Each structure stands twice: as C-alpha cells, then as structure tokens.
Amino acid sequence: MNPRTIVPPLPAATPAAARRAGARRTRRRLTPARIGLYAFLLAAALFFLLPLYVMIVTSLKTMDEIRQGGIFALPHAATLEPWRLAWGGVCTGAACDGVRTGFWNSVAITVPSTVLPILLGAVNGYALSFWRPRGANLLFGILMAGAFVPVQVMIYPLVRVLALAGIFGSLPAIVLVHLVFGMPVMTLLFRNYYCGVPHELFQAARIDGGGFWRIFAQVMLPMSLPVVVVAAIMQVTGVWNDYILGLVFAGRDHMPMMVQLNNVINTTTGTRQYNVNMAATILTALVPLALYFFSGRWFVRGIAAGAVKG
Questions:
Q1: Is residue 88 part of a domain?
Q2: Cα 23 from chain centre
Q3: Whether residue 37 sits in one domain with residue 118
Q4: Is 42 helix (H, G, I), strand (E, B) or coil?
Q5: Same structural domain for residues 55 and 104?
Q6: Does residue 139 share a domain with residue 72?
Q7: What does each C-alpha distance from 182 to 115, 146, 196, 287, 291 come to in angstroms?
Q8: 229 within some domain
C-alpha cells in the first residue's frame, strides 16, 4: 500500500487577522473613481441641503437675531412664533389668516386633479396598449404633441373657452385645466407600463369572457400599483407647485397655497419678516417633501418596472 500524504489543516484565522484582511480589501476598494464619486455625492447633498438648513434655522429665529447676521448660526432662543404667524396670522392680501386657507384650497384642487388624470390616463394607456382602436397611433401622437405645447400659449384660449362655459374662476375650471395638461404625460406613463405586460395575459382574460372594463378593473388595474404611485407623485408635485394656472383660473375664492405664498413674500407693506417668509415657504413645500419621503421606494420601483420605458 502506497503511503498517503496527509495535509495538515490550515490554521483558523484569528479575529485580528480577519480585521487586517478586511482593512486591506477596503483599501483596495477605495479607488480614485470611487473617491471622486463619494466627493461628488457629498457636494451634491450639501448643495441641496444647505438652503433647507438656512430656511429652517432662519424660521426659528427672531427678527432681532436675524439682523445680527450669522445666516448659518443656530438660533440662540428658538421660537415657533414665525410658524404660527405663517400658518394663521400673516396677511396674504386683504385677509390676514396666513397660508392656512391656501393650504386647504390646494388640497381641494390637488385631489381631483390627481385622481381624474390618473384614471383617464390608465384607461387611455390600457386601450392604446391592448385594444388598439383605429387611429390609435394618431391619437397617441396628438397627445404627445400636446405635452410639448407651452402652458403660456394655451392660457388665453382656455380663458375664452371657460368663460363661455360659465365656469371661469371656479374650482371645476382649475381642475379641468390640470386634467387637460396632465393627460398626455399620464397616458404616456401607463401606455409604456402596459406595453411591458405579457399580451398572453390579456388574451387569456379575453378567452375567459372578459370585456373592456372587466379586464381593466380586475386584471390590469391591480397590477398597476408601481406606475400609479409614480403618476401620483408626478401629478401631485406638479399641481401643488403650480403658480400660473392657479393664479389665472382658480379665482379669488380658490387661490392655491403657492399664490398665497407669493403674496406673503412679495408684500410691499410693513417690515419684511424673513423668519415668517421662511416658515411659510417650508409649510408650502411640506406636502411634496413628505410625498417623496414616504413613497420614494415605490417611485424607484415604478421607474424600474418600466414606467418611463418605451
């Protein structure tokens, strides 16, 4: 019998050796490209977060402390009085009830201006992707051409049309305007998303006797949560941050928050209160910020699922 060579087992790595090996791997991974990427991300984060920091600390200072300078300094004695005035005390025109009225006006405008375009865009995208009616490509081309028409070009014709209809300066008027301008983008999102759905699924539903609305409600719509979130974020952000359409079409009784914020900041009467202006600006931006913060992962998932892919 030939003798066999017995190889002794390798000694187990000690914790110190493991740490040294991990440090060597970390040093190898810190390439110049990675260091440059980290530097760029840090600079970008500071670029976007520094103005927000200045706004927050300024809104917590008194006017006497603001006049002393030190724009980046923390407040010596933080106060919430500017926030109270911004919400319910500062003058936004003839009324001095803060941006509170504009907030609820924006809610009343944003909810139907988001739900209706998403529903109609989903129906349009579903029909253009699966049913393909006669002239579907022409209709889609017209919708896409409408997406590139500047808003300013359409203001005067819309004013005349809504005035003839007797609804100019009302809540239905501003909702209808947002519906018109949001329809092309919503249709594009849902059409591209549904184009990624296997056509065999639609054919199977047709064989089972499903009609247009039944397939849409029971098959397609439950699968559309990622793109619905993407569409909702885009539409809510666009409607909430809108200024010119709300100024022209909303009327005096339905002025959105952005219009009232402009009235607060650009007032020419009295002393300019920078702390109140900053607080009012943050209050106006809270809804889009909260929406992106809580729905960010759904937004990324919707984009990755093909929401903006052709």
A1: no
A2: 41
A3: no
A4: helix
A5: no
A6: no
A7: 11, 10, 22, 19, 18
A8: yes
Angle at 230 between CA 224 and CA 236, to 5 degrees: 125
Kindly report the CATH number assigned to the domain that includes residue 180.
1.10.3720.10
* 224 and 138 together in one domain: yes
pLDDT, tens digit (0-9, with 9 covering 90-100), for 20-57: 655 555 555 778 888 898 999 999 999 989 999 999 99
State in Å, rounded, how far the first CA of the chain is from the last one: 71
Take residue 117 and report the two structure tokens written for it: 């375009």
Q: Is residue 278 part of a domain?
A: yes
Structure tokens at 192: 């591209």
Tell me the C-alpha distance between 5 and 3, whole Å. Answer: 7
Decide if 92 is inside a domain. Answer: no
Token pair, residue 235, equals 């539409």
Express each pLDDT in 170-185 by its tens digit. 999 999 999 999 988 8
- Residue 175's domain spans which residues? 100-307
For 211, the token pair is 């009609």
List, for residues 91-108, the tens digit of each pLDDT value. 877 778 889 999 999 999
114-133 burial: b if 16+ Cβ within 10 Å, else e: bebbbebbbbbbbbbbbeee
Helix intervals (H) in the chain: 15-29, 32-59, 63-67, 81-88, 100-126, 136-147, 151-165, 171-195, 199-207, 212-215, 225-240, 244-249, 257-265, 274-302
State the burial class of residue 190 (Cβ atoms within 10 Å of its Cβ: 0-12, 13-18, 19+): buried
